[in-house]
TrEMBL record:
A Pfam family it matches: BTAD
Lineage: Bacteria, Bacillati, Actinomycetota, Actinomycetes, Kitasatosporales
OmpR/PhoB-type domain mapped to chain residues: 29-116
Name recorded for this polypeptide: AfsR/SARP family transcriptional regulator
Database matches in InterPro entries: AfsR-DnrI-RedD_regulator, BTAD, OmpR/PhoB-type_DNA-bd, P-loop_NTPase, Sig_transdc_resp-reg_C-effctor, TPR-like_helical_dom_sf, WH-like_DNA-bd_sf
The Bacterial transcriptional activator domain, residue ranges: 123-267
Protein family per UniProt: Belongs to the AfsR/DnrI/RedD regulatory family.
Keyword Transcription regulation annotated: yes
Signal sequence bounds: none
PANTHER family reported in the protein's UniProt record: TRANSCRIPTIONAL REGULATOR REDD, TRANSCRIPTIONAL REGULATOR REDD-RELATED
One BP annotation, GO: phosphorelay signal transduction system
Length: 1011
């Protein structure tokens, strides 16, 4: 029979008898000892559903499991995976057709448990249950012959007592349950055989069944009826007497009313008992099913479209949905949500085809969106469903409610899967839901939070590996093999959106001569990005347009405006500042955009655009917003950004008040950044957004936006110890050009200063030269010696410019020039009367003097001055600069040939650096400590500290710190290996040399000194 043939030629499990795994070539084997078999049976009886380790422990042991129970379960699963993998491989070697479910992949790990990834129809016990259900439904519809045939095949699957020999309470419980199912199916099969007129030949079968189940009155009744119809009335009466005796003697009970009535009818010679199938057929249909008599019998509908042949990934999602739809939940509803183009329909079709075996009465499918994109009318959808279920078009009810009622009635005794694709809302879906427990519904929608569901799966883009695989399926695997990095970059540029990935793959397939890099270059231009993403008539842009068209005017304006600053992520306060609306009102708008799947939220109050949605929003904004509206949005974003950075500076910097005193007036109060380390962490998180807003301001052509962005970037170097400032380099460079074009000299000079400081942290080949040029330009604009009375902003800019030039010169080993700039910064600090500022500038001067080889005879004096400054910094609670002056003192010991003392002092500094969260100071201390330890001969300790330094340097993204850390690690590794330069040591030394070349420095020249 067709429903049994599914178990031939594919791997499956037998539980109806001894537990056996049958490979695809038909080879059967016992999967391990009884313990592992019991675990496999527990997973198999809940195939496709997560079974936790605790559930498996409870099922294997009685009330008091051993302490090692969880470990035992894990070990059993490992053994099972090994066995299944070996059995699957043997099946392939034997020439069997490849089976997609093989080996260790059959048992998957999910959360705190496991899931068996075999379709339910490949577990004989589950298939048996489905077949008995199918037989009951066929019998209820009057098709006794088919029902009897199904049951005969189902009963033929048994090979002995179910779960034979398995230990544990779960196996015992399931044995009883399956035995009862078998007995009930046996009774039903014999009764159906009688209904088909097989009364004479069924008598021996009933007698055999009674030997196994002597106390089941239905079997005694079937025997009496079979004998009576075979013209053996006397034997029928004797059968009744035997039944009474068995029940009375062994059970102590009397026969029931059904058996007594049958006995009376036989005694009376009731001819109606002789009725055979043709007369009994209609009577067998329950009254609640007779509504179907007006509808001609049709084949079960099979409306599911094919699964896309390039369907990729989504394994966990498929398992979750299959478990929900084919489990034991009554009337399950599953919902798949996500933005347009994310693959909701493909996942629904993949799931629908995977669970078809659970719905033998058919599958209904409806696209709930009309060709023009409008929501389809539920009444029209129901008309299609009812027609497919056999209702003539002329007999369709007129009203929606009547059609929905008839739909529920027709499905009341059927097991049908209903797939509703692209739902617009709950009101559209509710009339399309069947009421029967055995039916299931799978809905896809952009958002459908209000619909009750057994499971809701919110789809995101594919993971990077699956994204590349999907491109390869469309474009050909050759493209992936030839240009793997470029294909991976394409996948990232598409936002890992399946629709976009298919479009990319299609374009590559049609252009075999194009290098992948060509398409990648075209997609890097946002103005043409969406135009590149087309699949025939369907475009990514059109998918987004459908969601955008449903927005109210206020939400549409917010959707467009908030995309313009290119923020990586933003909060309610920032959005309120950009939109100039109250925060509570803005939060409602943002949540509505999330519900429309046009915004994403990863944490409460934090929002972001998917890359492609953001590109669509900006392209639409340029069309629908006026030039003035565009400028205003960027200006308000720059205002909020500047205010937020200023707040972080005030919360963390000793000079915060002076640094922010002459900033351009701001309309916004900025973000709530917290205090101390909270503000520092905020700045680290906000840095990508600061860069994005600054770049948009630079390109806005608005002088006010440019000036505000310059103020923000001028303050950013206050956090050089904790954030990778190099990320701001493109924005800083663009702002210089914009300031020159639109702003006064004060803004231009500040822009040059900010660019000079930030570029020193960047990684381009000429970054140090460009940094120096910008700093010198700032001095040219503000003058070499401005007084505080001339304006605090230009005064501080020049003071810090001298400090930065001193730093650059020290890096390039031009110590004479470095000392001159450092001394000038000290002189300017003294003019302010701020002893703390003077102490910091003097510390910088001491750092440079300590590094200068010409000062080696003066190290003792430098060391004494360091201790003097350390006392001042300690009393001023200036931890950041105290760390620097202590490291400078340690440097004098290191340069003076006293590495052990230097190492001891570096060790004192290290905990302070770590507790303050200053990654740059910590990294400097680590690599210098590694250098000192290496000189003491403790090479292994030097390796350990150099590795830590490299990790910190990579966080700061400063090339000089990375170069020094690679160099320290390479030399330490070389020392550990007694001077032998192995592959790892050579790799670090080569990387250090490469970084020094990028910076334009000689290997090991200069040191990292602070501002």
């Amino acid at each position: 029979m067709s429903h049994l043939s599914a178990l031939h030629g594919v791997a499956h499990l037998r539980l109806l008898g001894p537990v056996e795994y049958v490979s695809a070539d038909g080879t059967a084997g016992r999967p391990g000892a009884p313990g592992p078999q019991a675990v496999l049976a527990a997973l198999a009886l809940r195939a496709g559903t997560l079974v936790t380790i605790d559930q498996l422990v409870d099922g294997l042991y009685d009330d008091d499991p051993p302490a090692s129970a969880r470990r035992v379960i894990v070990n059993y699963v490992h053994r099972l995976r090994t066995y299944l993998d070996r059995a699957h491989a043997a099946g392939r070697e034997g020439g069997a057709e490849s089976d997609r479910d093989g080996g260790a992949t059959v048992i998957g790990t999910m959360a705190d448990g496991y899931v068996l990834r075999l379709p339910a129809e490949r577990v004989d016990a589950l298939l048996f249950g489905r077949l008995t259900l199918r037989a009951r439904r066929a019998a209820a519809q009057g098709d006794s012959a088919y029902a009897a045939s199904v049951l005969k095949g189902a009963l033929g699957m048994w090979q002995g007592p179910a779960l034979a020999g398995l230990p544990g309470p779960y196996a015992q419980e399931q044995r009883r349950s399956l035995a009862e199912q078998r007995a009930s199916a046996t009774e039903h099969h014999l009764e159906l055989s009688l209904a088909c007129g097989r009364h004479e030949e069924v008598v021996p079968e009933i007698l055999c069944a009674l030997e196994a189940y002597p106390y089941r009155e239905r079997l005694h009744g079937a025997l009496m009826l079979a004998l009576y119809r075979s013209e053996r009335s006397a034997d029928a009466l004797l059968a009744y007497d035997h039944a009474r005796q068995v029940l009375a003697d062994e059970m102590g009970i009397d026969t029931g009313p059904v058996l007594d009535e049958l006995h009376a009818a036989v005694l009376a010679g009731d001819r109606t008992l002789l009725a055979v199938p043709d007369t009994a057929r209609t009577a067998a249909v329950p009254a609640e099913v007779r509504v179907r008599s007006a509808v001609p019998a049709l084949r079960a509908p099979a409306q599911l479209p094919a699964v896309p042949c390039d369907f990729t990934g989504r394994h966990e999602e498929v398992c979750t949905l299959v478990a929900a739809l084919s489990g034991h939940t009554s009337h399950p509803v599953a919902v798949i949500t996500g933005m347009g183009g994310v693959g909701k329909t493909a996942l629904a079709l993949r799931t629908g085809h995977a669970v078809m075996g659970s719905f033998p009465d058919g599958q209904l499918y409806a696209e709930l969106r009309t060709p023009c994109g409008a929501p389809g009318a539920p009444a029209d959808v129901l008309a299609g469903f009812l027609t497919s279920l056999g209702v003539p078009h002329e007999r369709l009810p007129a009203s929606l409610s009547d059609r929905a009622a008839l739909f529920r009635t027709l499905l009341s005794d059927r097991a049908v899967l209903v797939v509703l694709d692209n739902a617009a809302g709950v009101a559209q879906v509710e009339p399309l839901l069947p009421g029967a427990d055995q039916c299931a519904v799978l809905v896809t929608a952009r958002a459908l939070a209000a619909l009750p569901a057994a499971v809701k799966v919110s789809l995101k883009g594919l993971d990077p590996h699956d994204s590349v695989e999907l491109i390869g399926k469309v474009a050909g695997i050759r493209r992936i093999e030839e240009e793997p990095d470029a294909v991976a970059a394409l996948a990232a540029a598409s936002g890992h959106l399946p629709l976009a990935l298919r479009a990319i793959g299609a374009r590559l397939a049609l252009r075999p001569a194009w290098p992948v890099a060509t398409l990648l270059s075209r997609m890097s231009d946002e103005a043409r990005l969406l135009g590149e993403l087309r699949v025939g008539e369907l475009t990514v842009e059109a998918v987004f347009e459908q969601s955008y068209a449903q927005l109210s005017p206020q939400r549409a304006r917010a959707f467009l405006a908030l995309s313009l600053p290119h923020c990586v992520e933003f909060g309610v306060k920032g959005a309120a500042a950009v939109l100039e609306l109250p925060e509570r009102e803005v939060e409602d708008v943002l949540e509505a955009l999330v519900d429309a799947v046009l915004l994403e939220t990863r944490a409460p109050g934090r929002y972001r655009y998917h890359d492609l949605v953001g590109a669509y929003a900006r392209a639409t904004a340029r069309v629908e917003l006026t030039d003035e509206e565009l400028r205003q949005v960027v200006r308000r974003a720059a205002d909020f950004m500047c205010a937020s950075v200023a707040g972080a500076v005030l919360a963390t910097q000793p000079l915060g008040g002076r640094l922010t005193a002459e900033l351009r007036p701001r309309r916004s109060a900025g973000e709530d950044v917290g205090t101390g380390q909270e503000a520092v962490q905020w700045m680290r998180r906000a840095l990508p957004t600061v860069a994005a807003v600054a770049e948009q301001a630079a390109g806005s052509g608005d002088a006010e936006a440019v000036a505000l962005a310059v103020d923000g970037l001028m303050l950013a170097p206050c956090f050089e110890e904790s954030v990778p400032l190099g990320m701001l380099a493109p924005a800083a460079t663009a702002l210089v050009r914009a300031a020159v074009a639109y702003c006064d000299e004060d803004v231009v000079g500040t822009a040059h200063y900010a660019a000079g400081v930030i570029l020193k942290k960047h990684s381009s080949l000429d970054c140090l030269d460009r940094s120096r040029a910008h700093l010198l330009k700032a001095l040219e604009i503000f003058g070499e010696s401005p007084a505080p009375a001339d304006g605090l902003r230009p005064f501080l800019a020049v003071l810090f410019t001298h400090a930065m030039l001193a730093h650059l010169d020290a890096m390039c080993a031009d110590f004479s020039s470095a000392r001159a700039h450092a001394e000038r910064s000290v002189e300017m600090a003294m003019v302010t009367g701020d002893q703390g500022l003077v102490t910091r500038r003097r510390t910088l001067l001491l750092q440079i003097r300590a590094q200068d080889p010409g000062s080696r005879g003066d190290l003792a004096r430098i060391r004494a001055q360091c201790r003097e400054l350390a006392d001042l910094l300690t009393s001023g609670n200036d931890v950041k600069w105290l760390i620097r002056v202590m490291m400078t003192e340690a440097d004098t010991l290191l340069y003076g040939g006293r590495p052990a003392e230097a190492a001891a002092l570096y060790r004192q500094v290290l905990p302070r650096a770590r507790t303050t969260g200053h990654a740059r100071n910590e990294t400097e201390c680590l690599y210098r400590l590694a250098e000192a330890l290496l000189l003491t001969g403790d090479a292994q300790a030097a390796v350990d500290h150099a590795r830590q330094a490299l990790q910190g340097a990579q966080l700061t993204q400063e090339h000089l710190l990375m170069a020094r850390s690679h160099q320290a690690l390479g030399r330490a590794l070389q020392a550990v290996r007694a001077g032998y330069v192995d592959g790892e040591a050579a790799g670090h030394l080569e990387k250090a040399a490469e970084l020094y070349r990028v910076l334009g420095l000689h290997t090991g020249s200069g040191a990292a000194v602070g501002q």
